[in-house]
Amino acid sequence: MVATSEYILCEVSNGVLVITINRPDKLNSLNKQTIEELHEALREAEHHNEIRAVIITGAGQKAFVAGADIAEFADYSIEQGKQLSATGHFKIFNFIENYSKPVIAAVNGFALGGGLELAMACHIRVMSDNAKVGLPEVSLGVIPGYGGTQRLAQLVGKGKAFEMIVTADMINAQDALQWGLANYVTTQVELLNKCFDITNKISSKSPTAIKTAIKVINAGYNSKVNGFETEIEEFGKAFGTKDFKEGVSAFLEKRNADFKGE
Ligand code: COA
């Protein structure tokens, strides 16, 4: 199954992989090793059909993820900075956005810089009412480098994205909800339960259709492909899956579908 490692706790229950980023003394900031471990856990989980969704959260009550590990990149050169960003995009942020199973961010506190970028790469965000989120990189003399300049504008619109990035301001969970950055806000105690309410719905649906839906929604945000054409192609392909046969048979026979993800 998916293994726990130094900075990542992994637990599978009821077909849901819960990954807890576990560096609470550094507010779960993302150092290189954490990025590697997170990538490995997600890669491993892709092979397990019984895992239908993933929840990512942070250890402790204070932070989801307080950004990239600032101490680690303090002396980086231009080339190392570029590499840091490129590796992060490839191993985590694009990887999660294009993941075959829905990924939910359970934002349990500060989600700053790379932390908010991680939450934004996830498909759904649930925040606890103490969450504070923002992209403070310009305070450090850099810009968001894990997709934040692109995904924030997609979620909250260009005007709010400009404001959040150039002022480096944090916003609270209620504002995040109102701006479309959070799907739901709960108490910290209820945070994981709210995520499980969502994953329970996901788990009973067709994994092949969900995988395809993720691909097609993302296609609309990729300037190199036509989202509508991708939808037509993928809609057609769905008719060739066992899940489709099962879903339609179950409906006609008035029973619950038993999807195998094939
Ligand atoms: N990278 C590395 N270490 C970090 C970190 C980060 N992004 N964010 C927090 N930490 C570390 C602190 O250095 C501190 O470590 P120490 O105890 O060894 O000194 C520890 O986590 C606790 O953080 P601290 O700053 O003492 O907590 P706080 O409650 O006073 O402030 C924050 C909380 C989130 C406001 C503050 O930690 C912060 O601004 N972090 C950086 C956020 C950021 O700029 N992220 C974008 C990075 S590109």
What does this structure look like?
This protein has 262 residues and is an alpha/beta fold. It folds into 2 domains: 8-203, 2-enoyl-CoA Hydratase, Chain A, domain 1 (Alpha-Beta Complex); 207-252. It is built from 11 helices and 10 strands. It has helices spanning 32-46, 70-73, 78-97, 114-121, 148-156, 158-167, 173-179, 191-203, 207-219, 227-238, 242-252; strands at 8-13, 16-21, 53-58, 63-65, 103-107, 110-112, 124-128, 132-134, 170-172, 184-186. It has a 6-stranded mixed sheet with strand order 1-2-3-5-7-10, with helices on both faces. A 4-stranded mixed sheet has the order 4-6-8-9. Coenzyme A is lined by residues 26-27, 29, 66-71, 110, 112-114, 136-137, 140.
